[in-house]
Amino acid sequence: MLMNAKLLELYQQQIKNEFESAYIYLGMAAYFETTPFHGFAQWMHIQAKEETEHAMRLFRHVCDRGHQVELRPIAGQKTAYGSPLEAFKESLAHERLVTQEIHEMYRTAVTLEDFPAQVELQWFINEQVEEERNVQDMIDKIAAAEDRFPAMLAIDRIAGQRDE
Ligand code: FEO
Predict the structure, then answer these.
(1) 3-state secondary structure 72-135
(2) Do the Cβ atoms of 128 and 99 come closer than 8 Å?
(3) What residue spans define the domains of the chain?
(4) CATH of span 5-70+79-160
(5) Tag placement on the chain: N or C end, fewer CB within 10 Å?
(6) pLDDT tens digit sequence for 106-151
(7) pTM here?
(8) Does 47 contact ligand 1 (Cβ within 6 A)?
(9) Using a 6 Å cutoff on CB, does residue 20 contact ligand 1?
């Protein structure tokens, strides 16, 4: 069942966006690897892996709908941040942007009465609620630590236990 050209274009773009997200999180992982906070680095590595999985879900849907996937260029990303809090705040801003992108896709799928895309995108809508909550949770913990090193290490240890 082929997709309308407008929705297909949003899918192609979002495949790129999700791979770019993976790259952003790898940049954050690279930053944390240079700090004492290797648990945060692990958290970012897991996040980067999840973003690749998001891209591949969209990739699968485009193929299943009978279209050819395009792999568009992704931008280079920075690997330096001013502080752990700055990195996680940028992560939240990025996730909010992704949420808007997913909502725009869903809005389009509803307008076009593309029911398979609606069902598929509902997974992403729920996923974004979780993504934003996870990052906000890290920001709240880090902000409460107020740069006290033992507290930061305790949070880092928790972050390092993330496995999915
Ligand atoms: Fe794929 Fe973090 O949104």
Answers:
(1) CCCCCCCCCCCCHHHHHHHHHHHHHHHHHHHHHHHHHHHHCCCHHHHHHHHHHHHHHHHHHHHH
(2) yes
(3) 5-70+79-160
(4) 1.20.1260.10
(5) C
(6) 999 999 999 999 999 999 999 999 999 999 999 999 999 989 999 9
(7) 0.96
(8) no
(9) no
